[in-house]
């Protein structure tokens, strides 16, 4: 999984943190959701979802509900409700229109009607 671009690598070289960045990547990032991750994820009653808006600016929104709000479907898929809320659909629309993440990672949204 490549998370660092050329600019990141240049800064890591400049500040002598390449080894730290490599260690961080090797120990923190995974392409699958393990058992410990599943237990943690499914025990939460909120999370923050970060996306970008139509112009590419970052947005972060709070998503809350009952414990188990997010469900791990399998080792690469999570599922969480998409409540109508304020009706703007900023997060959900971004996933379908602009997200490179969504193109490569399975994610399921539950509508408020299907979650009842």
Rg is 17 Å
Question: What is the overall silhouette?
Answer: flat
Multimer state: single chain
DSSP strand (E) fraction? 25-35%
Q: Helix count?
A: 6
Tell me how many strands there are: 5
Overall helicity = 25-40%
Class derived from helix and strand content: alpha+beta
On the 0-100 scale, what is the average pLDDT?
78
Low-confidence stretches: 106-116
Largest sheet: 3 strands, mixed
| CA-CA gap between termini | 36 Å
Strand and helix order: HHHEEEEHHEH
How does this model look, in words?
This protein is of the alpha+beta class and 116 residues long. It is built from six helices and five strands; from the N terminus they run αααββββααβα. It has helices spanning 6-14, 18-28, 35-42, 90-97, 100-104, 112-115; strands spanning 46-52, 58-64, 71-74, 77-82, 107-111. The protein has a three-stranded mixed beta sheet with strand order 3-4-5. A hairpin with a 2-residue loop joins strand 3 and strand 4. Residues 106-116 have low confidence and may be disordered.
Index terms:
alpha+beta, 39% helix, 25% strand, 116 residues, flat, 3-stranded mixed sheet, two-stranded antiparallel ribbon, 6 helices
Compact description:
By secondary structure, the chain is α+β, with helices and mostly antiparallel strands. 39% of the residues lie in helices and 25% in strands.
Helices and strands in order:
Layout: H1 6-14, H2 18-28, H3 35-42, E1 46-52, E2 58-64, E3 71-74, E4 77-82, H4 90-97, H5 100-104, E5 107-111, H6 112-115
Parallel strand pairs: 4-5
Antiparallel strand pairs: 1-2, 3-4
